[in-house]
Write a structure and sequence with these properties.
Elements lengths: L3 E8 L3 E8 L7 H12 L6 E7 L4 E7 L8 E7 L10 H19 L6 H21 L5 H10 L1 H12 L2 E2 H12 L7 H9 L3 E4 L8 E4 L2 E7 L2 H8 L5 H17 L4 H12 L1 H12 L2 E2 L11 H13 L3 E5 L5 E5 L2 E7 L3 H12 L4 H19 L1
Antiparallel strand pairs: 1-2, 1-5, 3-4, 4-5, 6-8, 7-8, 9-13, 10-12, 11-12
Length: 379
Amino acid sequence: MPLGYIISKWTEDKGLVVPASHPDQMTVDLDDMMRVFYAHITGAGEEGNVFVRLERSQCNVASYFTGMESEDPIMINLMLAFGEDPEMFGEAFLKEINGEILKYMSELSMTSTTQSYDVIKKLKDYLKVALFQLERLKNLTKEQRLAQIYSSEKGRAILEFLQERARPRKELLALLEDKLGKLISGIDYTLDPFVKTDLVHQDWIAGLADVIYFLQSDFIISRVPPQKLISEAKAGMPNAILAKNYLDTVRRYFVSYRQNIEDNLTVANNMMNPDKYDYIVLFRDKPYPLNKIPKGPGESFKFIKSMLKSMEEDKIITIIKDNKGTEWVFLLSDLWTETFYPEYLVERIRKDRMSGLLKKEVAVKHLQLLEKEYPKEKA
């Protein structure tokens, strides 16, 4: 899991400086930090992300750079253990964290030297919170792991390749690099949620030199109407006025709702955010007056309102006023994942075997795995 954050900034007079880091005792060799910086500025030095293995510091770094043309060229470095991949946290969630860090850095640039200590303290406090949120991602539910797969460009590509046929690890890696147009250091962390959700079975076949990945279950990610809240609203709960307005709002939304990749990514990214996911689960059970929403440890009302505003913009929740003007928060669309039996693979395996694309041993093994999974789906 993540080791820490190091925020560095390029200055003309001092070169690379480190305004803030967390934990405080984290130190990284200056030469390693310069390696990350050079990885960013090779070429045009534009805004973007790099992933670098730091041998001397014994860690990986997922680094975002604002670009040499920005007013303050800033690197946000997420330090990871060897073998860890930033995609396990979700691109959108890391982007959200980076955006908050840049707000503090902007505030710092406009603050006098005497007041800068307070801003740096607030930034370090936020880095601590961000690392705690990332740490929580190691305890994902099954539906969050499915969202993790979908939210990752690599994850979606791997699913696409395995929907065609079983693949050896080296072949899967080569296909992935060709499709994404970049070198990939490894795919183990990307494949981890596939294995943990039983979508994929990995096995060795006698006579073959590489592990084979078999898709044994597929999944759907989408939005669905919140059935529990709708049933209660039809019974007039929490009161007749709110119930009618809520039912009208849900009906209008789902009449025009159309599933697409862009919206599925919105669904996946909200599920991957641990704080948002907690509130999705909370609102599945019942609506709450805005001023009575349960708060998590260390959460301020300001933080909750900001998060709810984002969820409202993504059409996850809706806020409805009662006859006294009190604002109530309802789940507008529930976020839904479901696995299903990939029956389509049976015919593909037969065709691939007949055309010579699959070795007999691989085809037989895959059919055996699918046969084993079928009774579960039928039940």
